[in-house]
Amino acid sequence: MERYKHIIPNYDEFLRVIDEPMPTNVRVNTIRIAPEHLIERLSQKGFKVEKVSWCPYLLLLDGELSAGSTIEHWLGLYYIQEATSLIAPMVLSPKPHEVVLDMCAAPGGKTTHITMLMQNTGTVVANDPNPRRLRALMSNIFRLSAANCIVTQYDGMRMFAEGVKFDKAIVDAPCSAEGNLRKTPSRRYNISTKYSLRISGLQKALLLRAIDLVKVGGIIVYSTCTFAPEENEMVVQHALQTRDVCIEPIEIDVPSSNGLTKWEDVSFHKDMQYALRIYPHHFNSGGGFVALLRKLGERKSDRKDTAYIRNQKKAQVKMKLAQEGDVEALLIYLFERFGIPHEVFHGFNFLWSSESIWVTSADLDIANAVGNVVSIGIRLAHIMDGRFKPTSYALMWLQPYITSSIVKVELQELTQLLLGQPVKARFDCARGYVAIAFENDIIGCGFYTGEELLCEMPKGRRAELLDALHCERKLRAKE
Predict the structure, then answer these.
(1) Are 319 and 373 in contact (CB under 8 A)?
(2) CA 445 – CA 270 distance, rounded (Å)
(3) What is the DSSP annotation of 129-184?
(4) 321: helix, coil or strand?
């Protein structure tokens, strides 16, 4: 960190803070719950909860129970997120019904934050090249009920969108992650300048591709979680020199330092001061960099670029529009079985894939334009032997509208169900699929035979909920 001593304000305080453990911050998922209600729930579990002054849906937690071990986390009511990482989506400031690209989306913190700010409308194309990271991304999209996401698998440098221009794009680029030094102390010493220079080539390419995919007048946010100017100001400077873009002031009131206009013997554009540098002692978090760019004009495509676009191989979207008859039958089933009114799905598209019907607010023309689509929206129901089986994620998302076929279970019964054992009991509903509820939360799908209740939740999710229940039981035993 010595190389940054002259650019980090109050360097002694910086050194003191990086030796302290990271605080636990969580972002309230306002798609599913209001901040005040989540604060009340977490306080009842012994957490000391504070609102962060510069963000109304960011909370600071302190308690014996891990933030990742609560039922509220399992339900998708919040996302554990370092405070610094919220700034880039806030700077992007996506609006409802816009079309937004998240170039490096996994594991999904920024994607689901963007979805939340868009009120689950419009279209978010969430891209990542890594299959393992894509699984984490989709898990968080489903858990947090982000219905407007199109998940794609591209090398971001070769991202393709034929005939589509995005309103906004965010590039949270892979980096040396020096800003995570509180979680990984070795990053204080082991990151070489050579590594920063090497990875900056990828960062420059990702940023340029994002600029090319945004419409004229649109905005691009570039962010990292590192301090290295080679990965921050130098990358943005390269974009200024090779594309028709400008840097704009960032108008959010958050503790930070200005971007650098000079580093060693290299000078940057005077407007680089509009970028934000965030150090751990600014608000007791990690470190990072955020710059806001606006696209002023298109560049002239040369022959190489034209050939590159023409020769792109684009995988076809595996999903297709669901048949009107199937959609109508499903909506009737959801209303008659669970009381969910048809109006809930106004403005949504229904897709068919792998014997399932999916629902999304995303624009399907955009899905066809980008290709390499892995997932769209939320799986609403499976079709099994001509019958509908609602998914657990869908029932959790639709909880505010479910008025019938709700089976409430106690802790012992829930544990039994999660272990794969039936619960023998009579409930006040007809035979068929039901919404299992525990302590006023719908947690997933079950099947009621008329004499016993069976759990129809995915095995992995069952195991996670069992762990959360175990942790909460241990906490109660101490009280």
Answers:
(1) yes
(2) 57
(3) S-HHHHHHHHHHHHHTT-TTEEEE---GGG---TT--EEEEEEE-----GGGTTT-
(4) strand
Q: Cis link prior to 280 (omega < 30° from 0)?
A: no
Could you tell me the maximum CA-CA distance found in the chain, to the nearest angstrom?
78
pTM for the full model? 0.95
Other beta carbons within 10 Å of 197: 13
The b/e string for 19-31 (b: 16+ C-beta within 10 A; e otherwise) is eeebbbbbbbbbb
Q: Are strands 432-438 and 406-408 parallel, antiparallel or unpaired?
A: parallel
Strand ranges across the sheet with 441-448 = 406-408, 432-438, 441-448, 452-455, 423-424
Are 100 and 111 in contact by the 8 Å Cβ rule? The answer is no
Query: Judging by beta carbons within 10 Å of its beta carbon (0-12, 13-18, 19+), is residue 131 exposed, middle or buried?
Result: exposed
pLDDT at 301: 62
Collapsed DSSP state (helix, strand, coil) of residue 51: strand
Contact 71, 468 (CB under 8 A): yes
Pick the more confident residue, 184 or 213: 213
| Catalytic entry in 225, 246, 455, 471 | 225
Please provide the distance, in angstroms rounded to a whole number, between the alpha carbons at the two ends of the chain: 44
Spell 149-163 as b/e; 16+ CB within 10 A means b: bbbbbbebeebbbee
292-329: buried (b, 16+ CB within 10 Å) or exposed (e) per residue?
bbbbeeeeeeeeeeeeeeeeeeeeebebeebeeeebee
pLDDT digit string, tens, across residues 250-274: 999 999 999 999 999 999 999 999 9
Report whether CATH 3.90.950.20 matches the domain 23-81.
Answer: no
1-5 contacts, C-beta under 8 A, 24 or more apart? 1/178, 1/181, 1/188, 1/227, 3/193, 4/227
Domain boundaries, the chain: 23-81, 405-479
Percent of the chain with pLDDT over 90: 86
220, HSE (Cβ side, Cα atoms, 13 Å): 30
Type of residue found at 12: D
Q: What span, in angstroms and rounded, lies between the C-alpha atoms of 461 and 474?
A: 20
Are 160 and 371 spatial neighbours (Cβ–Cβ below 8 Å)?
Answer: yes
Q: What is the pLDDT of residues 375-390, one digit of tens each?
A: 999 999 999 888 999 9
| Residue 471 appears among annotated catalytic residues | no
Tell which CATH classification among 2.70.70.10, 3.40.120.10, 3.40.190.10, 2.30.130.60 matches the domain 405-479. Answer: 2.30.130.60
**For 192-206, what is each residue's pLDDT tens digit?**
788 899 999 999 999
